[in-house]
Design goal:
Length: about 130
Amino acid sequence: SSGINAEYGGGAFDEAGFNPLINNMISTMIENKRSNHISGVVGAFNTIMAAQRGEVPCKVTSAQPLSDDHLESLRGALGKFLKENEKLLLDTATDESLIGGMVVEIGDKRVDMSTATKIKKLKSALSLPL
């Protein structure tokens, strides 16, 4: 249970000046004990609106933080894959377990250029019988 009741929730949303459609949807979710799904609904709505605005989310995970020069080069390279009306939303993260290289996730595509994956593939190939 989320601890949110419909009576309190609905009034709070009215006072906050929410659009009546949003107020109704959230109140209905609370009444039907589905408040734990509200963040998922909001996330899906944000994804749809970002697509409508032409925003393309891209996550780049590298073993070490990228320098400003590397980020600029990366933006330029990734920008070549976008349509004219699209805008790249670049999010970066670090993961030392990658050892080196990077993993790029853009849209529904994932390109793993990490050293850790290359080592794993090489170990696998070396373990095959001749």
